[in-house]
Amino acid sequence: MRILGLQDIYRIFTRKKVINTPSETELSRCLSTLDLTALGIGSTLGVGVYVLAGSVSRDIAGPAVIISFAIAALASMIAGFCYAEFGARVPRAGSAYVYSYVTMGEFVAFIIGWTLILEYVIGSASVVRGLSTYVDALFDNSMRKAFESAAHINVNHLSSYPDFFAFGVTLAFSAALAFGAKESSMANNIFTITNLSVVLFVIIAGAFKANVENWKTQPLCTEESCQFGKGGFAPYGIVGIISGAATCFYGFIGFDCVATTGEEAKNPQKSIPIAIVTSLFVVFFAYFGVSVVLTMVLPYFEQNPDAPFPYLFDKIGWSWAKWLVSIGAISGLCASLLGAMYPLPRVIYAMASDGLIFKWMGKVNSRFHTPMMGTFSAGLLTGTLAAIFELHQLVNMMSIGTLLAYSIVAACVLILRYEETETIEKKNDNIQLNFVSIVKLIMNSNKTSQATKMTSRLVSTLVFLYIILCVCLTSLISMFSRNIYHFEMTILVPIILIVLAMFAILMIIHMQPVSGRSLSFSVPLVPFLPGFSILINIYLMMMLDGMTWLRFAVWMTVGLIIYFTYGIHHSKASAIKRNSIRTVHLDGRKTIDSLKFT
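The structure corresponding to this sequence follows.
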């Protein structure tokens, strides 16, 4: 066996997926724009709409939680724009995995795909465990008591009992997904409509009891401290609004599942962008509406952070309404579960079809046109995790994959927007590089109107440098936030220098010629919006705790073992064009002169 050199490894890591005719797919194209929009709303607008506004308003932002939601929605919308452009550009199952495979190469694609599997498994397990906990609470924890008495678990870092209800619900939803995308989409539409109807009821009913004076109330304070801030509209100040936005951002996670439907949408180039943008708008207005009603009916410091709406309706004497809220919460959880589980087998299908993971997992059933084995394998793993772990243990691992995927997609938008134009002459690609020519290239002094290989490579390098600076900036902010708050110049000066360097990089990218390819949807204000999205996502990743990163490292180690022992050899991109291999004899030995990968 020939030992691979560094050049061979580089070629393997950077070989890219070539997208063929969009209509060539084994999956059934049956989803309309309305189906995709409902999927995006359902997967994003879960039980958080019934919990998040109360907890953030009481403990973090006060009535200014509505501004926090607006900031979070803006950041999510930018990420949504990036996904929408890729949905129009690469209409394939697999979401960020396929996007990165097309633009950055196989190794980065595997990292993202393996991360997405973790994200969707943990996300689904946390939702179904939350559903079990919510239903059990309605019946005085009778399931918990029965399961603990039947099969008590006494192991550290595990649940005290196996949650057979969560396991059974997961398998039932897996079966629904396996038996057809259209059928599961119809169920999701029903759950989503019910959820939105209850949210609308909460907003309209609460509006009758709303009083704007509750935005001006003052909490009781002791001489030592004010537990709930200074009162008024923004009792915790600008810091509370920004911190609230970071928390509220997680309430918008889930829309990316729409991007995994590229091979099941009837018209993916148009449907995916419309569905992503529309679903984010609907979700924002839902969060905004319930936040306004909640903080106007009751002062922010009187909120119940765990169940704000049942508590609110009890306080105004409408005890019957809390059962409607419970129905909406359960419907929202079911829609979130479908939304979380739906993309998982699609990512597995995409990776298995490319040969990066075991191919049997991506085999499509001839009758139902779904990846049957991948769906049930994912459901079994999700159900097992949901059965043996507590909710808070699952939630801690939920965000890192999503944020990493958001960052990669935004970076891919930048790289592809400035990729080499295929029709342009290549006469400028072999220019002599020196200080003057590099400066001219950076400033685009030749006023080149279409991207060349040189300008494309320059943009790729600048995007990499920008990401490094984002990591440096967010690390400083997360580690020295107190010093920044007190305006210590030893920290502020390097932060200002990094910010200026980042802005300079974006300006240089902005001056470069763009690709001449026309798209049905394009991200506006490139490179600034994708650059801002990368910064926000990396900042939120830096805010995650060390144990989350450790668990992520363990998961990635398992994935890399699979890739280097299986995927690297079975990848479709590893097929060497036999007629392009030329062997030469050198001192009696055979040497491979060149390797070309498809």
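The two ends are 21 Å apart (CA to CA).
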